Every structure is written in C-alpha cells, then in structure tokens.
Amino acid sequence: SGKSRLKYEMRSHNEMVVAPMKKMSEDNQELTYVKNKGVKTEQRSKVVQGTLDVVTQKLRETEEENIFVRRKAKEKHSEYEEEMKSQEKFFHDQIENIHKALEDKEREFERLLQEERAKARQCDVDSGTTENRRLRKEQVQRFIDCQVKDVQEFEAEADQLIKAHEEKKVQLKKEYAAKEVELEKEFDAAFTGLMEKHKPGTFQASNSS
Question: What range defines the domain where residue 178 resides?
C-alpha cells in the first residue's frame, strides 16, 4: 500500500507538474519563434516598402524630368521651325527680287526692240532719187528681217534656257528632299540606339522568405 501510494504520487507529479511545464516551455519557445518570425517579416516588409517608396519617388522624378526634357525639346523644335520659316522667307524674298529685276530687264529689252523697229519704219524712204529710195527701203527691210530673225532665235534660246533652269530646280528639290529623308533616317537610328542604351531593366521579385 505504501509503494502504490508513492508510485501514484510520482505519476501524478509527472502528469500534473512536469509534463505541463515541459509543454509550457515548448509553447513559449514556439511562441517566441513565431514572434521573432513576425518581427523579421514586419522588418522585411518595412524594408521592401521603403525600397518601393524610394523606387516610386525615383520613377516619379524621372517621369517629371522626361516631361521637362520633352517640353524643352518641343520648344527647341518650335524655335527651329520659326528659324527655318524665317530663312525660307529670306531666301524667297531674294528670289522674288531676282525675278522682279529680270522682269524689268525683259521690259527694257522689249522697249529697245520696239524703239529700233519704229526708227526703221519712220525712215524717210520717199525722198531723193529712185535709187536712193530703193536702197533705203532695202536697208529698212533688211533691218526689220534681221530683227525678226534675231527675236525668233532669242525666243527659241530663251525657251531652252527656261527649260534647263526648271529641270535644275526640280533636280535640286529632289536632292534636297533625298538629303532631308536621309537626315531623318540618321536621327531615327541615333534616337533608337539611345533608347536601347537606356532601356530599363526587367524587374524580378525576390522569392526569398
């Protein structure tokens, strides 16, 4: 009876004291582990959040800088367009002045032709001897015929000159257009290379716990 009581008391002590304390210790260790893991997770989340905030701010600043650069580039483009228009007007005015001066020369040329022809027609061919009248008439006719022939030659050569001039203008415009297209291709290639050089990297989320 005494041994049974001792055995019962010992079993009761293990069950009622030792086992619960061991369980409590294990629970406390697990709870501490969970708390530590939670703290680490929270710290990692704060670090990630902080990193994301920094990246977001950098992206926002970069976007603002890009907007500023694009606005400045647009302003520069507008300045270049205004400068080109000013240059085009300057050259256009020069060409117009050349054309007006040439028109004045043509009018003067025509006036001289008419004036000399009028002089020939007003020549007195009815006075003097018969031989003198005949000679003056022949002289006037030769002058008028020569002038008419010369005018015809002038008109033919002027047509050829104008045609050659227009062909040169067309060729010049073609060459300019081809150079402008080539210039745009060079800019496209250079700008494409620039974008490729500064192409953003691919974001990959970390899989570490």
Answer: 123-193
Which residues are CB-neighbours of 128 under 8 A, at least 6 positions away?
136
- Residue that the structure tokens 């970069």 belong to: 62
Contact 136, 125 (CB under 8 A): yes
CA-CA distance, 110 to 141, in Å (whole number)? 20
Q: How many domains does the chain have?
A: 1
> For the chain, what is the total number of helices (H) and then of strands (E)?
3, 0
**Residue 187, domain member (yes or no):** yes
Model confidence, pTM: 0.54
Structure token pair of residue 56: 């977001």
The number of beta carbons lying within 10 Å of the beta carbon of residue 194 is 10
Q: Is residue 104 situated within a structural domain?
A: no
Task: Give per-residue pLDDT as tens, 14-66.
Answer: 666 667 777 777 777 777 776 677 667 777 667 667 777 777 777 777 777 77
Better-scored residue on pLDDT, 67 or 38? 67
**Phi and psi at residue 200, in whole multiples of 5°?**
-65, 145
Q: Is 127 left (phi over 0), alpha (psi -120 to 50) or beta?
A: beta
Please give the backbone phi and psi of residue 89, each rounded to the nearest 5 degrees, phi first.
-65, -40
